[in-house]
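Quick entry, no commentary yet.
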Amino acid sequence: MPATRPTAAVLVATMVTIAAPSALAQDRPLRYDTEAGTVNGIPVSQGRFNAALRYYAEWSISPALFDRELTGEIDLNDDAWQPGNDLSAVLASHDDAMSRLIEATRLDRCDFGVTYEQGVHALLPHLGTLRATARLLLADSRRLRAEGEFDAAAARIAAALRLARQSTGDGVLISSLVGTAVASAASAEGHRLIAQTPISRRAAAEMIEAIDTVLGEDPARMRASLASEQTVFVAWLRAEFDPHAIAADPDLIRSYLREIGWPEDTYQGQFSENPEAWKLALAQLDLAYDEQRRALDGRDPSVELRAFNQKLELGEYGPLAPILMPAIAKAVRSVEQMETTTLELRDALVLML
């Protein structure tokens, strides 16, 4: 029997059925930001203003762009490196995806929904792909530079700098370090670009604006990350390991000590036999975080951090702090080096305005 086309009446009835809200649907809150208004009368989704969701969407719909075997050839440390034929073809065919990624870097909010309540078990699966996204932007910058599209190349470097700032928003030190690495790579690429090719004043201004977002009052958000780690980690330890529960069940703390690689034979006994010792150790850990951040904000952070580390090694902050405190001296040096390189790029760009 030949298929029949639906009549106009059927089509209208179907459209009315789809469009008419049910009583249940009317009770549900609309999931859009009313302050953002509408586009052509259509409500704007809240997620539209969260860069994290934009990135996740692009990672999902453009898998060829993020193929590890293909992107594995990217070598931004080599000044002479250029994307090979296969990578260049993929980058060129994903120009729309690149434009969407660039737009995502312009958003202030970038919340990947880290489950802080899980403490040390919280996962950060987005960091690797976020860094890969920055590398792709910079690889595409080289492709465009070779093709004479200098302002487009500069736009991708500016986007990578903005992404660097977004990368630091998780409130954990590892995210600050990822952002630092991305900003360093983007700044180096900016130096290469302006040393070899002319860019417009508009392109230079965009890069300067992106640099200013990276630096700010707390470059790489390191201080904010340390404060956040302190709040989350100490609170998680207090909630996860009740001192009286430890006294009642020594295996509770023993399993945790084993998990973090602690010399459990040394400390497990004192905590299981004396619940107050665990409370004191947590208070000392909390104090150590405070002192570490004071050293970081001192007149000479390098000297003051060395003094802090000496106290840490001597046990002045209790038994927990030497094992659990992040070693930030190397991280501080990385941020300082990034600041220097990025400020030098900014100074060179200002001369082009």
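second:
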Amino acid sequence: MYPWLTTENLEKFEYYSDSHRQQLVNRLESNATDQHYAVYGNMANSMYTRAAVLRQKGVQCDVLLHPQDNFIMSHPFWEEYDGDLQVESRDYHELVAEGVIKKSSIEGVFQYGNIGEMPSIEACAELGISAEDYEAFSPFMLNYETYKHLDGLSASICAHSLYFGYLNSSPYAAVSLGGDLWFEASRSDAFGYLQRAGFSNANYILASDPLTIASCRRYGFKNAIYIPHYLDQQFYSPGESSQKQKIVSQHGGDFNIFSTGRLDVSTKGSNIAAGAIVEFLQKHKNARLMQMAWGNDLETMKDWFASNGVADQVVWLPLSGKKRLVEYLRMADCFVGQFVLGAYGHADLEAMACAVPVIGYIDPTSYGVLCPTGMPPIINTKESKGVLDGLEKLIADRQYAKGLGANLRAWFEANHGSEKWYIDHLAILQDMTKTGRKIHINPALKKGLSMIEKRYLAEQMMKAPEFPNYEVGSIFS
């Protein structure tokens, strides 16, 4: 991991973050829900999940989609869709036009197209866009309508394309979804500059994982605080599965391993789990793997299972809306996550929220410090043998498995549950409304790069492939 991510540094970072958040919560006023907020950059519905909970609490919170992002998983529709996609198209508007899905009825969702001609420098100046930025980044001015919408709000939380927060005058917090900070912010072109400006000029960078903190050190960003992102704990919850009878009648089995992650060896470590799962399925004919059929290595994995004689024990599932996904999770005996980054994501949290035992790899040093109640009690391994041992223990001792699932649900509620953590996000939104655009400095990040960090970054730069390249590689190893 990145050399700054020591226990001492992370404890200082987390302690300050926790105390600062608590101060904001203590100052939270009853009229915080009277303000008009927004979330922006809804890749994989990472932002709508926040907005939906705030709306349940009476907060007016718009959802703004990127003008060019029509991917079905980036539309709030996907979060509440109780169905599977049986067609190749992944374009929301195409799917609606072809009658595959119905147009979303979710209100407060906006997607502005690019305007046909350049807005005037005077119009952009009213949004707080400087003449220098207007000239330097003229192609980005075509997103004027989105900037204008954001500029009229009390505050917002932006992700994915951070320049939308930067190119208007309203206060905003930045959230990293991964590649926007790891890769795009490192580009030397106009887009890379704007991504860095979007992060560095935010009131806050809301960091919920150590990789974001490492990237902040790398770029020199000092405005990050730790705050867990949350999921709706009522929506993602244990219960009886409406899909179990159908799946079992078609495929049999009484022990279900579930995986939703892209089949991708380089970024997910799919091969680590695959070898163990094959061996497990060969031994236990009553076991089934329920696998979402997507990813760069899908066909390779299909061939792998077939060549090892377990193809009839693999249930290939089409991409499923999140409401349907919850039904699959509720019938799962185990969830297999990722093994490369040492971090957990939304998919892992969805499983934990549904009280499903999780096997994957999470870096214990950093998460043990950052998570309010410590490491999640998953079966933590980055070796194929560890995956196999975990599966064997789960199938042999169903009471152990049930207890592990219950412990993960309790951990989820304490560390990422909506009832606990939405209030901290609302307090940050209110704070930004009061202060306006003001970069908040975390004292734990004020020191410059140490010699160890400089050497590490220099070594990593020597290993880096030529741009453009979006391979995860070893940038955080």
